[in-house]
Design brief:
alpha/beta; Aspartate Aminotransferase, domain 2; 17 strands; Aspartate Aminotransferase, domain 1
C-alpha cells in the first residue's frame, strides 16, 4: 500500500480533527470495492458504517439520483413532495407503521422518537411521564438528547450535564427493565442488535417478553433500527425476524444507500401527537434523498434478496469458525445476517491495519473486537477473499506480538 495524497494534507490542515482516520483518501468505488487516490484497491467490509447497503455506485441508485437531480433536488417541507410521499407509502407497506417522519440521520430520527414518546404521554394527560429506559453499551447518536440516551459514559465526558430523564440498564435484562419502570416512564428505547459496541445480541424471547411488558405497563417501545434496518440482519427490519412489532421505529444508514436520510415510523394513533409546528427539519425527506431510498428499498425488500443475506451471514460465520479452528485467537463470533462481531485475543486495531495493508477494509470497533458490516451484495467469493486476507493479517499480527 502506497499513499501520496494531497487530500490527507488538506484534511490535516483544514478539517476538524475529531476522527481517527486511516492514512488513505478514498476517491472511487464500484460494487464491493473502493480505490484511494494512489490507485490502491480495497475490498470493503465496512460499507460506510453499514450505509452502502448495495455497495458503491449501484447502477439503479446512480440512475435514480441522476434523474432526480435533473428534475428537483430540494424545496423544503412547506410543500408536498411526491418522492417523499411515495417513499412513506412503500415503507409503511412493508411494516407495522402508518406514518413516517423523514430527517437526515439516525441521531435525528432518535431525537424525534424521544420527543414523540414524551409528547404522546403529555397528550394522554400524563405530563410527568418523561423518563426513557435505554441500555448500557447502547448507541443512539451524538446530539445531546441522543447522547443522553446512549449508555456509554466514555462518549459523554466533557459534554455534561446530560439531559435528565434517562435510565440505563443491562442489555437483555428484562428484570432490570421491569424494575426501572415507574409512574414516570414513557418508553423503553433499545437496539435489536447493539452495533457500535461489538454486535451484541439478545434472544428473541427477551424482545417478545419486553413487548408484553411494555404493553402491560402502558409504556411505548422504541426500536432503534438505524443500523439493523434495511436488510442488515437478513430481514427488512430486525423486529420482523424477532416476531414482534415496536410502537416506534427509527431508520437511517442503509435507507439511502449512500445518501443522507433518516426516518421515524409509527402508528396513526401515536403520530397524531406530532401535529403542525411540533417538530420539523429543513432538509429531511428532500426529493433527491427519497429518490435514492426508493431505489434501495425496491431491491432490498425482495424476499429472495433478504434470504440471500441470511444465507450469506450463516456462510460467513461458518468460515470465521473454520478460521478460529485454525488459529486459536478467535474467542467469540456473533451477529445476525451480514452484521457480525468477532472477539479476538489479538489487538484488533493492529489486525484492521494489517487488513488495510493487504487490501481490505474492516472495522476494529473495540480493542479486541472486529465488526463486519459489508454491502449486502457481498458474494460468497467476496467473503472467502476477506477470510483469506483476515487470516494472513492475523498470522502477521500473531508473529509481531508473539502470540500463538
Amino acid at each position: 500500500m502506497t499513499t501520496n495524497s494531497s487530500a490527507i494534507k488538506l484534511t490535516d490542515q483544514h478539517v476538524l480533527g475529531n476522527y481517527r482516520r486511516f492514512p488513505i483518501a478514498l476517491s472511487k468505488g464500484k460494487g464491493m470495492y473502493v480505490w484511494d487516490e494512489s490507485g490502491n484497491k480495497y475490498l470493503d467490509f465496512v460499507a460506510g458504517i453499514a450505509v452502502d447497503a448495495l455497495g458503491h455506485c449501484h447502477p439503479d441508485i446512480v440512475k435514480a439520483i441522476k434523474q432526480q437531480a435533473g428534475t428537483l433536488m430540494h424545496v423544503s417541507n412547506l410543500y408536498h413532495i411526491p418522492r417523499q410521499a411515495e417513499l412513506a407509502r412503500q415503507l409503511t407497506r412493508h411494516c407495522f407503521a402508518d406514518k413516517v417522519f423523514f430527517c437526515n440521520s439516525g441521531t435525528e430520527a432518535n431525537e424525534a422518537a424521544i420527543k414523540l414518546a414524551r409528547k404522546v404521554m403529555f397528550d394522554r394527560g400524563q405530563p410527568k411521564r418523561i423518563e426513557i429506559i435505554t441500555t448500557l453499551a447502547s448507541f443512539h447518536g451524538r446530539t445531546l438528547g441522543a447522547l443522553s440516551a446512549t449508555g456509554q459514559n466514555k462518549m459523554k465526558q466533557g459534554f455534561g450535564p446530560m439531559l435528565p430523564g434517562f435510565k440505563h440498564v443491562p442489555f437483555g435484562d428484562l428484570k432490570a427493565i421491569e424494575k426501572s419502570i415507574t409512574s414516570k416512564t414513557c418508553a423503553v428505547m433499545i437496539e435489536p442488535v447493539q452495533g457500535e459496541t461489538g454486535v451484541n445480541t439478545a434472544s428473541k424471547n427477551f424482545f417478545q417478553n419486553l413487548k408484553r411488558l411494555c404493553k402491560k405497563k402502558k409504556v411505548l417501545l422504541i426500536f432503534d433500527e438505524v443500523q439493523t434496518g434495511m436488510g442488515r440482519t437478513g430481514h427488512l427490519f430486525a423486529h420482523q425476524g424477532i416476531g414482534m412489532k415496536p410502537d416506534i421505529m427509527t431508520l437511517a444508514k442503509g435507507l439511502g444507500g449512500g445518501m443522507p436520510i433518516g426516518a421515524l415510523l409509527t402508528t396513526d394513533e401515536l403520530a397524531a401527537s406530532l401535529g403542525p409546528g411540533t417538530h420539523g427539519t429543513t432538509f429531511g425527506g428532500n426529493p433527491l434523498a427519497c429518490a435514492s431510498a426508493l431505489a434501495v428499498l425496491k431491491i432490498i425488500s425482495a424476499k429472495s434478496f433478504l434470504k440471500q443475506v441470511r444465507d450469506k451471514g450463516i456462510f460467513f460465520k461458518k468460515e470465521l469458525q473454520k478460521l478460529g479452528d485454525r488459529h486459536a485467537v478467535i474467542k467469540k463470533i456473533r451477529g445476525e445476517g451480514l452484521m457480525i462481531g468477532v472477539d479476538l485475543t489479538l489487538p484488533t486495531p493492529a489486525v484492521s491495519t494489517e487488513c488495510l495493508r493487504r487490501g481490505a477494509l474492516v472495522n476494529a470497533i473495540a480493542p479486541h473486537t472486529l465488526r463486519f458490516i459489508p454491502p449486502l451484495i457481498a458474494t460468497r467469493k467476496d467473503i472467502e477473499k476477506l477470510i483469506s486476507i483476515l487470516e494472513k493479517s492475523i498470522v502477521s499480527v500473531m508473529k509481531e506480538t508473539g502470540s500463538s
